[in-house]
Amino acid sequence: MKKILIVALALFALQVTAQDKKEDRKELRKEKMEQHKNMDPIEMAKINTKKMTLALDLSQDQQNKVEKLNIKNAELRKTGMEKRMALKDADKKLTPDDKLKRKNDKLDHQIATKREMKKILTPEQYEKYNKMSKKRIMKGKRGKMKHKKGEKRDHKMEKE
To answer: For 58, how many CA atoms within 13 A lie in the half-sphere containing its CB?
Structure first.
């Protein structure tokens, strides 16, 4: 009986500890998001370039080219975000044609960026860059998939 009680207490303590860590991670994520909101696109681009330099071991020439590309991308993201906020403030909805155009423009830009990175990086660096990009994309999708599963579950309940 004592052994069962000890095991139960240990499991309970472990569970409480795990939940605390999850809350801490959420708080850290919120703090990071707030910091990123206040940063200038050029500052963000420079930080991203430095991270890439460390990860990919870029030469000074490569670093300069990647920084220019990152600054261009950051400025485009900022203008896009401002446009979305303006639409949101005006309570306007995008038409399906506008959504399609926006999606096509985004994909065209991604293709152009990828081609430009391929020109700048060596084949080994480019391969590592692709792996890093895929990992980042999957990390972002993971959060979206959890949300969608919850929506589906709620949706099924509504049908019943």
So the answer is: 22
